[in-house]
Amino acid sequence: MKQILILFTILLTNLKLSGQINLKLSLISKNFNKISNITNSGDDRMFVVEQTGKIRIVKFGGEIQASPFLDLESKVLFAGEMGLLGLAFHPQFKTNGYFFINYIDKNQKTVLARYRVSQTDSTVADTSTATTLITFAQPYSNHNGGDLHFGPDGYLYISSGDGGSGGDPQDRGQNLTTFLGKILRIDVDSGQPYSIPAGNLFADGPGGNIDEIWSYGLRNPWRFSFDHQTGDMWIADVGQNAYEEINLEPAGSTGGKNYGWRCYEGNHSYNLLNCPDINTITFPVFEYSHSEGCSVTGGFVYRGTQFPVLQGRYLYADFCAGKIWSLRFDAGNWINELLFQDVSARITTFGESKYGELFIGDLNGKLYQICELNSIVSQPDLVLNSNPILPEIYFSDGKIFSSGSVNPYTSVSVNAFRAIFLEPGFRAESGAVFVANVGVCGRW
Q1: Does 139 sit behind a cis peptide bond, omega within 30 degrees of 0 on the bond before it?
Q2: Is the Cβ–Cβ distance between 375 and 321 less than 8 Å?
Q3: Angle 69-74-76 (CA atoms, 0-180°, nearest 5)?
Q4: Are 293 and 399 in the same domain?
Q5: SS3 breakdown of the chain: % helix, strand, coil, rounded to 5?
Q6: For a disulfide at 80, which of 86, 130, 141, 435, Cβ 3.0-4.6 Å?
Q7: How many CA atoms lie less than 13 Å away from 135 in the CB half-sphere?
Q8: Domain shared by 368 and 387, yes or no
């Protein structure tokens, strides 16, 4: 039976553009269930985390693997902000197969666990390898943090919210004897099941401080990331009633920073009871008020190659307003630019491919690739007239023309930004698979 599958990718238009940047979102799929995280494993695949408890694989070219990579719906407590929240692959995943997840279990506890990919099938996790590293109670249903990233030092960093409610009623953000309201750092390559890195400044052995603490004074660090070129850490912290904030921890930091919550919301006093000297607080490099949005979603510094005008810009969003901004430092000042807005979008997370290209996911289950049109509209067209067309994945930022043929039992995927023209003479033989995506804005 002849199989020809034509897929059309939708580009969302933006409400407001900066003078030099024309940002668009290229829809990859709208069939996910409440996306909470997106990452890569060091190859061409993207892994999409669904808050309800599954991890799905998106293959290079946009095809979604039918079966999940991991299904933890029976373990995950999905309600409100709780669920499966974080995923990070070990830097040596290709050889050791380890990956780490952060979720809220049925007992309303945060669980940091390690798994291994199946040794016989790289498309599925081996659930028998689950090892719990850290667990701690979540007193309320919100402010769970849950993001995971390996830093340039090779250690695993974990974000944790202040435990929830409102206003941090137990002042957990400033309390060094709780996991809540922190960035944690652990060494997963030594110890059983991990060890405390020598540079963790608050480590004091059994009892006392939580040895895993790297920095503190955070309300709900809903997505943080490392700039893979500089090593800087960017932390987006969701505000209370008035301000959202972006924190920057430069590469080479020795940690121990106090980002101020609940004493301060952004740069403004919130609750100064029992607070340390203001000179010990690390204030955000940027904040925005709730006249612009209500819940920041942290992103990444763009380090891809497809869209040079985005290079070096930190892209982040607001969940409520559907806005995407870029933040950059220029001539001694922080420059914040609105690049995109779709009020129907509920942007929950950003993701980064192996090559530094960026993606976003939303609560409605849509996965997009971030595109910049001015970088691609002048790109050359691609002509595929060979007989047969070699079974590969083809990309063009312009148009694709083809009068060639696709042999039986081979698969050809063509991806063009502007248009695909199947000219006289083109044919897909019986048993062939031909996939055409229009609107794709660049390689991953």
Answers
A1: no
A2: no
A3: 85
A4: no
A5: 5, 45, 55
A6: 141
A7: 11
A8: no
Are 261 and 162 in the same domain?
A: yes
8 found inside a domain:
no
Whether residues 311 and 423 fall in one domain: no
In a domain, 1, yes or no: no
Conformation bin of residue 176: beta by default, left when phi > 0, alpha when psi is -120 to 50: alpha
Q: Is the pLDDT of residue 381 over 90?
A: no
What is the domain range of residue 71?
14-372
User: CB-based contacts of 240: which residues, under 8 Å, 6+ apart?
Assistant: 166, 167, 219, 265, 270
Of the candidates 294, 285, 293, 301, which has an alpha carbon nearest to the alpha carbon of residue 370?
Answer: 301
41 pLDDT above the threshold of 60: yes
Q: Looking at the domain assignment, is residue 57 inside a domain? A: yes
Look up the pTM and report it. 0.90
Is-contact 363 411, C-beta < 8 A? Answer: no
pLDDT at residue 375, as a whole number: 78
Asked whether 411 and 433 are in contact (CB, 8 A), the reply is yes
Backbone angles phi, psi at 186, to 5 degrees: -135, 160
